[in-house]
Write a structure and sequence with these properties.
The chain contains 1 helix and no strands. The chain is mainly alpha-helical and about 70 residues long.
Length: about 70
């Protein structure tokens, strides 16, 4: 699995260069805030998906009970 989607094969040098560019763009103080925001977004997305799955399961259970 040497290929990462459209990026091809990236090595340690490329990762370091990307990290330095991100550090220059956002600064040292903004990166933790950015990661915190991303974490909250992912958590919210997972909660939303779980809510939809629960709703689907509840609907399926109601349909099965109606058949009985």
């Amino acid at each position: 699995m040497n290929h990462l989607l459209f990026l091809g094969s990236i090595g340690a040098t490329e990762i370091i260069i990307i990290a330095l560019i991100v550090l220059l763009l956002f600064g040292g103080k903004k990166i933790p805030e950015l990661m915190k925001g991303i974490g909250k977004g992912v958590k919210s997305f997972k909660d939303g998906v779980k809510g939809i799955e629960d709703e689907i399961n509840t609907t399926d259970s109601d349909k099965e009970q109606d058949k009985k």
